[in-house]
Amino acid sequence: MSSGNDQQSEALSKPTFSEEQASALAESVFGLKVSKVQPLPSYDDQNFHVYVSKTKDGPTEYVLKISNTKASKNPDRIEVQNDIIMFLKAAGFPTSSVCRAKGDNTASLVSVDSGSEIKSYLVRLLTYLPGRPIAEIPISPQLLYEIGKLAAKLDKTLQKFHHPKLSSLHRKNFIWNLKNVPLLEKYLYVLGQNRNREIVEHVIHLFKEEVMTKLSHFRECINHGDLNDHNILIESSKSASGNAEYQVSGILDFDDMSYGYYVFELAITIMYMMIESKNPIQVGGHVLAGFESITPLTAVEKGALFLLVCSRFCQSLVMAAYSCQLYPENKDYFMVTAKTGWKHLQQMFDMGQKAVEEIWFETAKSYESGISM
User: In Å, how far from its chain's centre is CA 227?
Assistant: First the structure.
């Protein structure tokens, strides 16, 4: 994405299939007998919840994913994403099953005549995962710990994943890779002139000075890259005491996968778990403790964590504001993070790194002694 115009052309390539067209795709490409189709929210692709007539065996609900035209030009990356989803499922993670098209491929290229040009879209079908987004419940410290643990386990498991097209996950100018925080400078105009912009500019400056210079000291891995509170599903069960206990029942949306670092995954997860929390600053310590139970951070990684969490807030908030300009009709979806995100970023900025780190590290340390805060 070499310019704002490049980003705009990518955003404007978002598919615009109707429910009837989506139903027809599910039937013609995947051979389903569709009974109902409903749109699902998506950032720059298009997703549909597909219901099929009951069968003797097999699922009755699916997600039809239609990639935007830019993503559709990289079938290798989508193939790798599909294979990773299947690999993680085989390793015991709660991911969807990837369905095969009539030609036995896991993705199919569909061409559509838009009148002025013919556009091509990659279409996939996944099984629908039950459960509620974690955004809908108050998240307990124990659940935050388990989510941190899950993030570390996922990245560690992917170290064993091999694929001839794995290099497709080296996404040099991908705006959502934390390494690319400086690319946000092209979109700052959407914020106007205010304190929010000043904070973002300061974070970018610190990122260049304090993170870019240390990347070679971080341990590399493949990142899910988007473990947000709508991409983690939970289901409840009753504990012996009769209270509801929640377990992770699903991990969604592998479209932002790319090569990054263990500490990137942790920072992204902390940031998104803060969004709906009534005590956002406390969140980081519990997620950190869970993560470090699998993958302890090095001193250099730990020292960068605060700035990386701030940087992810900046990515999410700036790109949401930009996307709202392109798609004002989807403003409610894009601005989910912004409802509390600016407030949380300002609070972190006002408290400062030392004060926030003290809370995070003391909370994480309390787990070692068996007395979680």
Answer: 4
pLDDT in tens, 68-127: 999 999 999 999 999 999 999 999 999 999 999 988 889 999 998 877 888 999 999 999
Angle of helix 353-368 versus helix 299-326 axis, rounded to 10: 120
The full set of domains in the chain, from first to last, is: 15-127 (3.30.200.20), 132-369 (3.90.1200.10)
Query: Longest Cα pair distance anywhere in the chain, in angstroms?
Result: 66
Catalytic (active-site) positions: 226
Q: What is the pTM of this model?
A: 0.92
